[in-house]
User: Fold these one by one.
Assistant:
Number 1:
Amino acid sequence: MRVAAEIAEAALAPPYSFEASMLDAAYYTQLCLDAILDKVLAEQRLTPEEGLALFRCPDPVAVGALAHHARMLRHGQQAFYVVNRHVNYTNHCVNACRFCAFRREPGEEGHFTLTHEDIIDRLCNDPPGGLAPDELHIVGGCHPELRLAWFEELLRKLCKLRPGTVIKAFTCVEIAHFAAMEGISTIEVLSRLKSAGLAMLPGGGAEIFAPEVRRQLCPNKIDADAWLRVAGEAHSLGIPTNATMLFGHIESVEDRIDHLCRLRKQQDISGGFTCFIPLAFQTEHSALKLPVGLSGPQRGLDQLRLIAVSRLMLDNIPHLKAYWVMLGVKQAQTALHWGADDLDGTIVEEKIGHMAGADSVQALSVAELESIIRCSGFEPVRRNANFTKFMTGA
Ligand code: V47
């Protein structure tokens, strides 16, 4: 006799059928979502008001089914992962955002700034029998003394040691900080870093674009327009970028839709966003305290709904990442059926989420990532940072 877990896995194996999906017109009419269903089936753009209706729909599963349809149209049975390494070069930061549990004051316990050698050691020494990474993810706080030349030299060293590996480094916030420190334009910073080997920008620092919430969360950080301008400049230089949204704190559903619409508009203009990553706020060690009921496991369905609405609103951004570090592995796996197509990667060492209280593990192996994907009924596909290299899992 087969164990139940095996049967459950086998039951998911048949490919998605658009005809036999859950998208029953009569049911969506009952939910007053019939116009949205028609648009999703016709692959038409949703309005901000329709996005809000999806947040207010009493049946989150119905919203998830729409997003799953949109995801299956784009990626079919494929679900992506990357063999990567994260490194944070410093937690010294001039910004002091209220939600951040990663930053430390100089002299405070846990304050650090890595040397080039430390960074190379973390990124270039593969564990015995381990795979060489296809992506290096490098971000840090906005350090008041590290100069642009230091970062250029680091990139050049890494390119020499890891030829062929995509270097995804420095958020739009860091780029703006380097420009202010050097007294040069952000586009000049981007071109210099590109010449030194930068291939892509990660999506951090976007937080929430809505000005009032941003003022409360991160008053010292560049504003939405500046973040989007730097992303657009990167795109104009042929540097793709990701985009994030920090959610699950003090933002309203209107703020979420505003964030998604600003990203969608920028993508219409500059076209270089590769992947959207909703970042679930980790509360435990954050100075930003939320009322009981607004954090913790009871937010699980809200996370899935946010992922689904993001997939439906961001019709022009190809990929949506269920970042397992912040969501937890089980929720990230579930999210693959709610509009997400990517799980991020092996990571090895993660600090920003874990210092804030994320209870996920530090690393996942390729075997674990592939198993999580297969047990969700998808085909694991190993990618690099910008999804330009694909390898179907064994
Ligand atoms: O910018 C900070 C967020 C971001 C917390 O582009 C927090 O592939 C939750 O951007 N709870 C950094 N989030 C991480 C990031 C990222 C991660 C993985 C992949 C990619 C990519 C980008 O983390 C920050 C901030 O928005 N963050 N503190 C917190 N307590």
Number 2:
Amino acid sequence: MAKILIVEDENKIARFLELELKYEGYEVEIAGDGRQGYQKAMQEDVDLVILDVMLPGLSGLEVCRRVRQEGRQVPIIMLTAKDDVTDKVAGLDMGADDYMTKPFAIEELLARIRVALNRRVNAAVKSETLQMGKLVLNLSSHMVTYDQEEVVLTKKEFQLLEYLLKNKNIAMTREQLLNNVWDYEYLGDTNVVDVYVRYLRQKIDDKYGIHMISTVRGVGYIIKDEK
Ligand code: CA
């Protein structure tokens, strides 16, 4: 069953939501402030986030922005104060999937949760492969081909390529790549990123005579859509 994270500082609302969601069969986790909310939202086993806008620590908008900035696509439903149009618009701008104004009917929230979870399942089926010209990266078989010829990559090379392709047309800093691909905090040494980009270039760019991974001077790397 899907696991839902509730980020809400008002205990009464959080408990009420927890009860209703558990009754529907969902697993529930609660975070009482923005920072904790952000940390928990980044956990891979969370399937959907219900995110209040008004939170101590980090605001809900900021939590949403950071989660998206890290490339995490978990569905987010924002809870905004009644009639606060600015918050609604800002929430959607920050990458929220949907919003509800307080006070809300629980049936409507449950319906929106089902929609958001279904959309995610459909998107997952569609996104089994990432493609870039003749390069195809298959996320289920972990196989990469160029013009239907297999490109043999190590696990890290694959993950780096996957991350760059998922963030196509966005310049990724070395720190971002290190934090997301290597899964450890940036400690000042980003050489490993350059080394792995070099491996990828040898195996793909050089071998097939293409220019896939570009260096963004002073920033990091980017894979751009072919013109
Ligand atoms: Ca609140």
Number 3:
Amino acid sequence: MAAPRILSGIKPTGRPHLGNYFGMMQPGIAWQEKGEAFYFIADYHAFTTVHTPADLRDHSRSVALDFLACGLDPQKAVLFRQSDVPEVTELAWLLTCLTPMPMLENCHAYKDQVAKGVVPSHGVFAYPVLMAADILLYNSNIVPVGKDQKQHVEVTRDLAEKANRLFGPIFTVPQPSIVPEMATVLGLDGQKMSKSYNNTIGLFEEEKALRKKVMSIVTDSQPVEAPKDPAASSIVALYKLVASPDQVTQMEADFRAGGTGYGDFKKRLFEGIWEHFAPFRARRAELAADPAILDAILADGARRARAVALPTMERVRKAMGFGP
Ligand code: AMP
Ligand code: TRP
């Protein structure tokens, strides 16, 4: 069997947090050994909310650096900016014309905004179609994502199947890949970690800021002496992501035994996070020292991405009845 094509994207709406890392970046980096991996900075998607040009540009570069620092190998994987292959917006239009409105009305990003009383932009409404275009443009088999993106991959599958029925086998039907233990990383308040809930822990926080955030994790008010339930604590859930199995067993035992306060557990969690990301911090500083390195990686990524995207678009235009 040919090596699978793996593809995923991350929005440059700010710096990545532990949810992004464990939900998508780390699994994505593992996949680069098993197939042809394509990862992109979803700047068109971020433009639904980021309307300050300097921020969009800076965040795009900085998320790319973060991904590289965490181990994305540009020799193995293709790292590119979504907007460097603008054909994706053409494909998004073609797919838009095949998309029933109710399918999008049912999608969570749009529904959440409506529920909050915000008037959603057309971009937010059409967001899953652009995501489908990303996935189908590159003939992707596997899409590593956190659980919140599963619905969007299902929309993509529906659209690919519909197009294939109407126009012949033009698209590869993709599958999501979700690591169960990392499907939803919890934030400081115990809800899903998300930029929009303001409850995130960034991968590359300054030491003092990181400590402050970890110490602010919401807990119940049990006294130090009380035995505590490790399964109910987001401190333990986060510690599992960064600590060794022995360290986790120790923390769970200390929870059950009583006699240790939440403040002490939070200090252990802080140490765990700080140490886990230490090698990545060093690598990031090296990469950031010479902006030409990133420019060259993104230019090469754009070239390799276009080499796949342009033939797809030719095939799709022809099958759908465009051109001579
Ligand atoms: P975004 O920043 O929305 O572009 O998210 C990039 C990736 O991170 C997507 O695959 C998300 O599913 C994943 N992700 C975001 N938040 C979390 C979370 N709290 N837990 C697990 N995965 C997440
Ligand atoms: N919508 C994804 C998110 O918010 C980012 C994304 C855009 C994506 N296009 C994609 C993920 C294609 C996987 C495949 O996290």
Number 4:
Amino acid sequence: MAILKIARMGHPVLRRKAEPVADPAAPQVHALIRNMIETMRDANGAGLAAPQVHVPLRVVVFHVPEEGADDKDNAAAQPLTVLINPELEPLTEETELGWEGCLSVPGLVGAVPRFTRIRYAGIAPDGSRIAREAEGFHARVVQHEFDHLDGILYPQRMTDLSLLMFQEELRHGIPEAMRGVEQTEVEAV
Ligand code: NI
């Protein structure tokens, strides 16, 4: 296993659309997944998409830790999940603002509007199909990771760039616009 180098905002691999995995059972794909999990854990992230480790394939890994799951979530904490060639569908037009960080945008956090309820599906490493509905932080993480597969970073989703800031500066207080948001921890994904 290996810890992989994480691409940062501005690298072209983060702007391109990733390709579907032709053979999810291929040993190279399983090696990539193991290395992505190791890299995500090493970087203390909650999620990682293959383009973030310079591999333009449609593979994401994520988990929702207990502290990331809020009380409103029906599906709170989620175990480590690997999705190959995933699909996503919003189940509502309703969006909410929440803080996001990204391992490819180190040090910064931003308030990003995301759909509050989604359905997603994909192929697991054992070849089985995963299909879930998600709300809250779980839905947010999944939308963030899927965006990586389409060459989109979270600042491109932001509607108020005054809420893009260095995480350390949150010590001066939560900006007015975010005071009603319960989520306080910002996990990089
Ligand atoms: Ni990210």
